[in-house]
Amino acid sequence: MSRGRRNAAAVALALAMAPHPPAGAQADARRSGYEFMGAATQAMQRDDAQNPAMLWVAEGEALWKRREPGVERSCADCHGEARTAMRGVAARYPAIEASSGRPVTLAQRISTCRADRQRGVAYALESEPLVSLEAYIAMQSRGLPLAPPADARLAEARRRGGALFRQRVGALDLACTQCHDELAGRRLGGSPIPQAHPTGYPIYRLEWQAVGTLERRIRGCYTGVRAQPPAIGSAELVDLQVFLAARAAGMIVESPGVRP
Ligand code: HEC
Ligand code: HEC
Predict the structure, then answer these.
(1) Which CATH architecture has domain 3-16+29-47+150-259?
(2) How remote is the CA of residue 197 from the centroid of ligand 1, in Å?
(3) How far apart are the first and last CA of the chain?
């Protein structure tokens, strides 16, 4: 038995000894990560006055309205009120970008608009202004069902993302599906394993002491199984997000979420 397999066996054993969740009687067994969290973290997400992510949302709103020196128009000058113009937008990303014909995340889409339409200095992926704008735009979809577009060009990305989700990786030789489909609801170390639905992103994560994206969260899972994570903005991470969005289609957007 390889070291990877042995480690995987040890993880499996630890998981087998953890208590089972009660069997769900509902037809739709999908659950947001919110439902797996402790009461204190849930309360923090439920109440905007307590949710630290709202600081990023406020920053995003300021950026949306700001006319920077040297930049002709603010986001709002072209798009109008985010409450109406961006309603439902986050719920249907990743989507195909018209200019490239490729699937892009909401962050990538914002970043393109910033560079090509607004002609401002580009925002790096995961940079604070971009994460803030993403959090502000994502919040405009709160309460709406995730609605990935029925675009045939997304099918191939979804298929590749699904294959990545089932592929064993890293020194622990584990696939996403083993934890997030087969073992969801059990505990690993101290944490409950959620089903990995992208309903709350971007999230404030206590461990990060910051708001971060779904990509950052997924990369953390690669590191967790001691695999080299794909780069931020890479096709692999976009494909995985296309797959996760389809897997969670119809679930309600809760952004910005709070996670341990
Ligand atoms: C060894 C088990 C394990 C594997 C394998 C694993 N994860 Fe995770 N994942 C976790 C745990 C545990 C958490 C919750 C961590 C926490 O709350 O600190 C998590 C959290 C997540 C979340 C956040 C869900 C939410 O509600 O916010 C996503 C998304 C996710 N994982 C995706 C993936 C993807 C994609 C892969 C494969 C590349 C993967 N995970 C592989 C254990 C795993
Ligand atoms: C000069 C006008 C202009 C400015 C400034 C501008 N945008 Fe845009 N934006 C557009 C146009 C036009 C489109 C849609 C056409 C396209 O595909 O490019 C668009 C599309 C988008 C989309 C995709 C919407 C969807 O329905 O998929 C997002 C998100 C977005 N912009 C965010 C922003 C943000 C955030 C800013 C500020 C940082 C910004 N835009 C600044 C003109 C602008």
Answers:
(1) Orthogonal Bundle (1.10)
(2) 9
(3) 34
